[in-house]
Write a structure and sequence with these properties.
- The longest helix is centred in the last third of the chain and has 25 residues, at 259-283.
- The mean pLDDT is 97.
- It contains eleven helices and 13 strands.
- By secondary structure, the protein is an alpha+beta fold.
- The strands form three sheets. It has a six-stranded mixed beta sheet, with helices on both faces. It has a four-stranded antiparallel beta sheet with strand order 10-11-9-12.
- The structure holds alpha-D-galactopyranose.
- The site of alpha-D-galactopyranose has 10 residues, from α5.
Length: 383
Amino acid sequence: MIDSIKEKFNELFEGEPVIVRSPGRVNLIGEHTDYNMGFVLPAAIDKAVYYAIKPRDDKKVNLFAFDLNEGWQFEVNNIGKSEKSWANYLIGVVDQINKSGKEIMGFDCVFGGNIPIGAGLSSSAAIEAGLAFALNSLFNLGFDKLDLVKLAQRAENQFVGVQCGIMDQYINIFGKKGNVLRIDCRSLDYEYFPFEFDDVSVVLFNTNVSHSLASSEYNQRRQECSSGVDIIKRQYPHVESLRDVTPAMLEENRDKLDGVIYKRCKYVIEENQRLLNACEALNNNNLSEFGQYMYGSHQGLSKEYEVSCPELDYLVELVSGREGVYGARMMGGGFGGCTINLIKNNYVDSVWQLVKENYKKKFGIEAEVYVTSINNGTEIIEL
Ligand code: GLA
């Protein structure tokens, strides 16, 4: 992969590029909690986007998307939306650098990778944060890691127009081989937890569906949570997000909340607690207990937060309680994409066979499997 991207660079441009690797991510538990100022537990993985990139001495930017075999050009000082949707993830980053008051020259860039698109593995954050990281080092912009995370998130929020939380960009920059990262999305503090079990794999089953309501429902969930906060705030003025709401405070306000809003808030508050419990279980090397919290997370996402879909529910139900499976849940925004499963190595093949055959029978769609390993966040791999 890296060689083909370098080859393409040499064919299109002059000089020796820097190579940057920018990973996709999984999230073990803590879903739809980031924009509610709660906790998440993601890890960067071995699937990644690779950049071959080199500064120019004028203001031209030449982009080339290797996987699509398509290019796009623009000028650093003349930012506008591209008709090619992939280019907007990159233009948005340059736009944010301009807005920060720092100056860059143009650059030549070929990028491509193996993060499946629409599978909930954050290929878009990998593109944004990877470019932000690359430009920061090529032009010595002096942004620290957290600046890069926020810059990449703003690119997505403001330029691409998706109101995502901070998890995906954060783990992309802060990921560490062999570790999951607990991010406190209110304080933006973090803590690494070793996650290396010789006999257990993190396995993703891709439903290969991505229902089109995903982004409108995502924004609606954000809205529902903030309506809940507005009501609870009347009694408890210090409350700024669901993170500040205890289960008791929620119950006290139950009759003032619409039934749907109550369910959404309940899920988020419980998910934060589940995540903290899951980290305790991890500290005790207790994967069976950890897996139970994953199932709990899925139930909440499916029944209370209502961001699952029949395909995801089916895949979780199918594997739950099977020998060798510790836990399973839908992962990411929902309405399609992957389930994440913790499976003993010597059961991975048989569970995959079960999933493959039954999923095809039930939905007429081929599922896919990715056995992932936990890798570093974005890094320069060749100077
Ligand atoms: C998407 C968003 C994240 C997060 C998850 C749900 O991946 O980009 O910020 O909200 O959904 O946990």
